[in-house]
Amino acid sequence: MSNMSGIQRRTVQERSDPAIGAIVIDYSGGDQDVNAAARGLYISGAGDLAVEMLSGDAVTFTGLLAGVVYPIAVRKIVQAGSSADGLILT
To answer: Into how many domains does the chain fold?
Structure first.
């Protein structure tokens, strides 16, 4: 994800901390590694999302709703099995 280069982000200590930055994630060209500390993942287009969690577990979240920040820590967005769009890492 070229839009991540050079971005400095602090570690969020609490999930209630406000977002201090955002990164748009576009997985249309393939899997996307997420190399930033984040408090959540905003979905603007409903659907399913296949991810690799920070722990390394592979999981698909199904039926995600649009307009929601999901408090999940992921290290990869997997294109296969994903249909949600408008992803923003906060």
So the answer is: 1
